[in-house]
Write a structure and sequence with these properties.
single chain, 3 helices, 62% helix
Length: 74
């Protein structure tokens, strides 16, 4: 087919087609940031001291639980 033939083609939707439904996106949240911060503290604590490691584990656990809880309620 030449380019002229493509210009003459008109696409019409069939009668049984449905309109696309919009996606429902989750609300913005800070939990991924705190999860990443906790993970950073964990690795930093592995290199330095157990206090930072413990703080990282605590932040990571709370952030993971908070994020999962928020996703479950949406």
């Amino acid at each position: 087919m030449t380019e002229e033939n493509y210009k003459n083609i008109e696409i019409t939707p069939d009668e049984d087609w449905e309109k696309a439904k919009p996606e429902i996106l989750p609300r913005p949240t800070y939990w991924p940031f705190f999860l990443a911060m906790g993970l950073t503290f964990i690795f930093w604590g592995l290199l330095t001291t157990w206090v930072i490691l413990l703080a990282g584990l605590l932040i990571f656990t709370i952030a993971l639980a908070g994020w999962i809880n928020q996703i479950r309620h949406e």
